[in-house]
Amino acid sequence: MKKLAVAVWLLSQAMLMSCSQVSTDTAAISAANETNAEAQGLSLKLELADNHYQNKAQSRSVLTITNNGTETLPAKGWKLYFNGGALTAADSTVATIQHFNGDLHYLAPGPKFEEIAPGASGTIEVLGRTVRNVSNFPSGFYIVYDAEPGKGIPVSLEIEPGNHFDEATQQLAAKIYEDNATIKDLPTTALTKVFPTPISYQEKGKPFTLDTKVTVVADADFRREAEHLSEILATAVGQKPAIQSSATGKAIYIRKKPGMGAEEYTLSVNPERIEITASSPAGAFYGIQSLKTMLPATAYAGKAATVEVAGVEVKDAPRFGYRGFMMDMARNFQPKSEVLKVLDVMALYKMNKLHFHFSEDEGWRLEIRSLPELTAVGGTRAHATDGRSSIVPSYGSGPDASNKAGTGFYSREDFIEILKYARDRHIEVIPEIETPGHARAAIKAMDARYMKLMDEGKKEEAERYLLRDLNDKSVYRSVQGWSDNIMDVSLPSTYNFLETVVDEIMSMYKEAEAPLHTIHFGGDEVPEGVWEKSPSVQRLISQNPEVKNTDDLWYYYFGKVNQMLQERGLYLSGWEEIGLRKEVKNGKVNWVPNQQFANENFHVNVWKNSPGSGAEDLAYRMANAGYKVILTGVTHFYLDLAYNPSFSEPGLYWGGYVDIDKPFYFIPYDYLRNLKEDDRGNPLDRSIIKSKEALTEKGKANIVGIEAPLWSETNRTTEDFEYKLLPKLLGVAERAWAKDPDWAKEKDAAKSNKLYSQAWSEFINVVGKRELPRLDYYAGGYQYRIPTAGAKVIDGKVVANVQFPGFTIRYTTDGTEPTKTSPAYSGPIAATGAVKLRVFNTAGRGGQTITIQNQSSM
Question: Given a cut of 80, is residue 461 above it in pLDDT?
């Protein structure tokens, strides 16, 4: 594998760009990094030397420190900070690596570290976990000198992975080839022109021609929806159609028809008129979205003066009332413009719940005016020593507050704009206040507030919103490495804080005239050891007979939060843990549905279903017990997981790999049947789930919908975010809206597989030939992932195929990167040596290049 000479914190971004963009933008980035390095004299290179060191699941790398400046790097008196990587120094006498907090670590010189003169280099061997993809490498390096402890200086990093992944790349390309071989290339005329798949669809008669003479006729209740359609058509035909109460010529009619379902609609197209009927504005809106998916991609590029809409008769309604996407803008920030783009694509595909994950350990992103520290401190990541101005760097955000991924928030005005935008698209925004865990940003912000007011002599006011017991000596470590990220739920000030935040959030919804029915209060991943040495907790236990130990604090807390929300006319949502109770049997800890809250209308996102975890059936157990369950399983819906095991694919993989097929083949009422892989993508041992609990009829009624989260640890840019979002989201939209497919209901395995293969081909053709070309232009265009080619050597020749029919494979045999003008693949390639293959979409943008070594005739 060729050397990757690019700053590691920009690796995943660079991979998304076209060939021409990579050569231009990477050069500019490298130049900027080199300038920074020269300014402070250092640059780093991390070379992966052994990925199975000592035949164990560990790696050995060589970190080279080069002094490009004019001053000697001393043998002591500095620390080199970085995020991630989980590294240790091979020789502690040369250097030591210490965990600081969260994913922040630092390397310090040991007694045998030798100073590095200008122009010289020094090396340090480091050990870590086996590297599986680009996201495993550390990032965000900066140096801090003891003489200036408050100043962090960025240091560039170059990584050199060597050829450790070449064989795996060839094997994966062959597997992708075999998977793609099952996809049939279907004629465009045979594809359903409404997406997601409607309940009833029939093409009949001649098309309707859209032009500048067409008007929109809408009933008064659907005026807002008509405005939305008119704005879209203005792009298509170059002029905004008039909205009228009646018409004599060709027109698009949006009519109210009593008695239809809440989100049901019909769509009829003939040469003289297009008619959408619905009982509700939401139904009318979804009819309009279906009409929008019938328009060709060129309509959104503004290149068509007239547009033909096929003659159809459509009757449609969603399968689930909850069709959700969770956007994490807390761990790494995304700008308001990206939130609006998310709402646009959600609306197009009839998704109706945006889970707004704005608070985390690593960031608080929503302005609460009565508590300005939440964003001033909790929304800022930077290297600092005072604890008053920022929280620590995470996920490669570096030492400077100017980093756009680490620092940022939505003002009150921003959020109200987002709410209005969502409201007009029939999307309910569900805010999440992560509690009591994953709360470090809020805790540290309130600490800063406390210190400020104590300096002013205002002790009572300083303590009003504290989120931790200042005398707590409890020792714990969260899954993400934090030792100070859990709110103390015994403190009255914690509830003062929550009530203040909730009331201000409610006021924003009221001002936006946006619906608010629930607030999500998190509830996941609180580690052992929390609260055990809190004096405040001990007082509560001594005074409250219902709280016998720290485990009981869980039920105490969510009981109080539930009461607070009910008093405000809201219900409680959270991760599955809010509805679980800890039981110890024979020394073994089990988590079971908590009957105390089973009938309290708790809505739970159940994410734990990994094979081998013991929680494979947890969603069904909770639904059977009476909880309202939103299926959010990591195995099929965590969009932040890498697409596949390729080294070049950014993203996490702790819960497996997720491509567009995972949500597509998910069977909501029998998902144990479609648990096919372990967390490494290998075929699953079915005995693991043999005795798991099935969904009952009562439980089935408690499955309210589906949600797909996109966590942001590895998303440092909007391009990173969209790469993971799309095209996976289309699989989620299809499964949340469309009716139960025939293959999912068929009990005979052979027949089911045949039906599935047919449905998969139809779906993937629609995505490749209709939806992704549309997303090149819709809402300004999306940087969706373009798949790598499937390829292998057969009979001495390189053969290749692609996941999305309609996309083009281009190749080179001279060692250069394929571009959009390189030869198009049309059949087996006889060339020997390195054959480079790259997939391009219809707009000419390319994905990642793969190299196949054809040694057959050499």
Answer: yes
Cα dihedral sign for 266, 270, 274, 275? Answer: negative
Q: How much of the chain exceeds pLDDT 90, in percent? A: 88
Q: Which residues are catalytic?
A: 525
Task: Please state, in angstroms and rounded to a whole number, the distance separating the CA atoms of residues 825 and 828.
Answer: 8
For residues 123 and 136, what is the distance between their CA atoms, to the nearest angstrom?
Answer: 21
pLDDT tens-digit series, residues 692-727: 999 999 999 999 999 999 999 999 999 999 999 999
Q: What's the angle, vertex CA 163, arms to CA 162 and CA 167, rounded to 5?
A: 155
Fold of 4-164: Immunoglobulin-like (2.60.40)
pLDDT band at 681 (very low <50, low <70, confident <90, very high): confident
Can you tell me the distance from the alpha carbon of 23 to that of 6, in angstroms, rounded to the nearest whole number? 11
Tokens of 401: 């507050």
Q: Do domains 4-164 and 786-854 have the same CATH topology?
A: yes
Contact 63, 88 (CB under 8 A): no
CA of residue 448 relative to chain centroid, distance: 30
- Which two tokens mark 90? 């091979």
- At 247 the pLDDT is 86
Instruction: Reply yes or no on whether the pLDDT at 22 is more than 90.
Output: no
Helix and strand element counts for the chain (H, E): 23, 37
Average pLDDT over residues 563-577: 98
835 close to 811: Cβ distance less than 8 angstroms: yes
Predicted confidence (pLDDT) per residue in 306-318, tens digit: 899 999 999 999 9
The SS3 call for residue 42 is strand
Q: In what order do the strands lie in the sheet with 104-109?
A: 95-101, 104-109, 78-83, 139-145, 153-154
Q: How far is it between the farthest Cα atoms of the chain? A: 90
Q: What CATH architecture applies to the domain 786-854?
A: Sandwich (2.60)
| 250 contacts 273 by C-beta, under 8 angstroms | yes
Name the E strands within 130-278. Answer: 139-145, 153-154, 157-160, 200-203, 208-210, 215-218, 243-244, 251-256, 265-270, 273-278
Q: Could you say which DSSP state residue 27 is in?
A: H
CA neighbor of 482 nearest in space, from 539, 443, 426, 430: 443
The rounded distance, in Å, linking the Cα atoms of 666 and 129 is 32
Closest CA relative to residue 169, chosen from 857, 848, 856, 757: 848
Query: Angle CA(115)–CA(117)–CA(123) in degrees, nearest 5?
Result: 60
Tell me the mean pLDDT in the region 184-200.
97
- The residue type at 153: I
CA 432 – CA 521 distance, rounded (Å): 6
Q: What's the confidence (pLDDT) of residue 40?
A: 53
Q: H-type helices in 17-58, by residue range?
A: 19-40
Site of tokens 């109460």 = 245
Whole-angstrom distance, CA of residue 638 vs CA of residue 659: 10
In sequence order, the β-bridge partners of residue 592 are 581
Cβ atoms 562, 600 nearer than 8 A: yes
Helix (H) or strand (E) holding 760: helix 749-766
Task: Report domain 322-740's class.
Answer: alpha beta
Dihedrals phi, psi of 595, to nearest 5 degrees = -65, -20
Is 717 strand, coil or helix?
Answer: coil
> 200-316 — its CATH code?
3.30.379.10
> Residue 408 pLDDT more than 70?
yes
Extents of the domains making up the chain: 4-164, 200-316, 322-740, 786-854
Per the structure block, which two tokens stand in for 839? 């997939």
Helices 412-423 & 336-348, crossing angle to 10 degrees?
10
Sheet strands (E) in 452-537 = 518-522
